[in-house]
Amino acid sequence: MFDNSRRPFIAINDEVEVCMFPKMANRHGLITGATGTGKTVTLQTLSETFSEMGVPVFAADMKGDLSGVAKTGGNKESVQKRVDEYLLHEKGFEYKAFPVRFWDVFGEQGHPVRTTVTSMGPLLLERLLDLNETQGAILTMAFRIADDNNLLLIDLKDLRMMLQYIGDNRKEFTTKYGNISPASIGAIQRGLMRLESEGADKFFGEPDLEITDFIQTEQGKGVINILAADKLMNSPRVYTTFLLWLLDDLYENLPEVGDLDKPKLVFFFDEAHLLFNDMPSSLLEKVEQIVRLIRSKGVGIYFCTQNPADIPERILGQLGNRVQHALRAYTPNDQKAVKVAANTFRVNPKFNTEEIITQLNTGEALISFLDVKGAPQMVERANILPPQGQIGPLTSGERNQIIRSSLIYGVYEKLIDRESAYEILTHKKELLEGERQKAAQEMERIRQQKEAQKALLEEERAKRAAARQRKADQGILGEVLTQVGRSTTRQISNELGRTITRSLFGALFGKK
């Protein structure tokens, strides 16, 4: 740990220094133990060790304690006692700070971490939303429709609008993509609302994280990337899905490098039992694939949990480097867990592993790392080396100073909201609404015109009806008088015409 020219050692007892071969560090690992037995200090010591090796680290910080790695240590009497006991100063031990970069999904205690809905993908979102198989199929369909129509799904409002668009036009999509259940769309929408209430909407957006920003060194030391997870842990499903996305992003984007002399990145997955709770088989297969293949991309994954039984056997078998802190055996289930943990180690004839697990002191552990050929070394009982950095959290002022002095400060702080599915579909909806309004106005004009024509027709009908009524009221006598009146009028007109004609001709021809 203290001399880069030799193998770093992680723990020590009166007989041996327990060392890790850097070349074997990407074969993954497991840190287990009951609460309060020293897992967090072990995680800090390992992080410092990898940083000394020039290997960047990513780790979640549940209580803020890990942040102390950014400050020179020596603040604990118990640490100084162990340094003196094992003459660590003579071996090169010194208190010092390590390069740290803070991250936070909520952007409060570190640089914001974001990704797009498209980058997350339907499989991880299905777990995040706790969907059943049918609802998951509808979600996958939404991604396919968005892709076919060149619609970007960046944040949650994009996905909400996409689902609404599909629901409003489901008859149009059913033939090509299959049945679309309004109930399933409603369930997904409710899940998205729940995510927003938990604050997960801040995780989706741009600029999205450039994964290479995790793989940086400063003055030859690997940067320790610390994710503030105290608030994130209020939503365990969001926390585990976020870390799964990070692993998937590393797996998809890093090139194949084969076996390196040391890892490119070491990834600590704390509270790993939350990851595998109720995990669907399709996602478990995905995780198993990542764990199996990501080491060829230079990434080592270390799961931290209370018991090895928390890890599925198919994944547990791929974790070659083991650190086991104390377990308690108060119940039959506890005793079974102790036996399972003991069976994961290569036996040391000097002691009974199963008995020792329950007798370990705080800061003490059973340790077995892989040897240079990749085989597990014999388990050793040893004390974890004390951290060189501070044990315990930084103050908020110290944390903010580190954040603002970071080379990437300002890169992720400002949210970008470019045109995506929400804007495009909203504009389309507005255009359709405008067309609907025009059509409605035209229909209203036609209706009014028809109403006017109907009124004229009704008026004409009323006139004819009134005329018929007058005739009906006059009866036969009225009709005779009318005819007599007409005849008399004609006779008078004819007689008057003849009189006028005779007068004219008499005047013309001189008739006396």
What keyword list fits this structure?
512 residues; alpha/beta; Rossmann fold; 2 domains; twelve-stranded mixed beta sheet; elongated
Radius of gyration: 43 Å
Q: Enter the CATH topology name of the largest domain.
A: Rossmann fold
- The fraction of residues in strands falls at 5-15%
What structural category do the secondary elements indicate?
A: alpha/beta
Order of helices and strands: EEEHEHEEHHHHHEEEHEHHEHEHHEEHH
Number of strands: 14
The amount of helix comes to 40-55%
Low-confidence stretches: none
CATH level-1 class of the largest domain: Alpha Beta
The CATH superfamily of the largest domain is known as: P-loop containing nucleotide triphosphate hydrolases
Tell me what the structure shows.
With 512 residues, the chain is α/β, with parallel strands linked by helices. The chain is 47% helix and 11% strand. It is built from 15 helices and 14 strands. The strands form two sheets. The chain has a twelve-stranded mixed sheet with strand order 2-1-14-13-12-3-11-10-4-9-5-6, with helices on both faces. Strands 7-8 form a two-stranded antiparallel sheet. A hairpin with a 2-residue loop joins β7 and β8 (221-222). α3 runs antiparallel to α4 (133-148), α4 packs across α5 (156-168) and α5 (156-168) crosses α15. The chain is elongated, with a radius of gyration of 43 Å.
